[in-house]
Amino acid sequence: MNLFRFSGDLSHLLAALLLLLKMWRSRSCAGISGKSQLLFAIVFTTRYLDLFTNFISLYNTCMKVVYITCSSLTVWMIYSKFKATYDGNHDTFRIEFLLLPTAILAFLVNHDFSPLEIMWTFSIYLESVAILPQLFMVSKTGEAETITSHYLFALGLYRTLYLFNWIWRYYTEGFFDLLVIVAGLVQTVLYCDFFYLYITKVLKGKKLSLPA
Fold first, then answer.
1. 205: number of CA atoms within 13 Å, CB side?
2. Are 201 and 208 in contact (CB under 8 A)?
3. Is 77 exposed, middle or buried (0-12, 13-18, 19+ CB in 10 A)?
4. Is 143 exposed, middle or buried, given 0-12, 13-18 or 19+ CB atoms closer than 10 A?
5. Nearest CA among 52, 122, 119, 42 for reference residue 74
6. For the whole prediction, is pTM greater than 0.70?
7. 47-83: pLDDT as tens digits
């Protein structure tokens, strides 16, 4: 554990709580991509299949439970609790084009050809592109609510901090996992345009919009 990883975890937790709070207080999931949230739920469910078999620390176990719970609760709110407010007309990204390639890649490129390892690898690949339906939805609608923008920024910041975490671990522990680092870089790059728009628009009190 180091400051970059801990800060990244807090940023990730903040993103999840911001999203849940936004939906609960507004009683609406408008502007939120149910498909992205479904992908994130799949990510954390497949990543933490070892929840009851591999104990690392209390902190690690608690964070696993929190991520699975938050992502599952988010999906439930979108597709059940506040289903009437879900904007399915704009949430049209074909997620099968993300699920199938990442599943195949996980079978072909992994650290160990075992069920748990393949599922873990699949979750790493899928997380790197899971935000695409949300970005596509924002681009399609032309704008995003401020709270949704804060959620996206916190999520992007989490991945950026994890990149620094890997750099730190490389120089202090000799740790180097090319699979994780490449997936993390891909995910961070997807946020680059958003970071620029967030800083130049949202922080100045304007609504965020992505180029169509």
1. 0
2. yes
3. buried
4. middle
5. 42
6. yes
7. 999 998 888 999 999 999 999 999 999 999 999 999 9
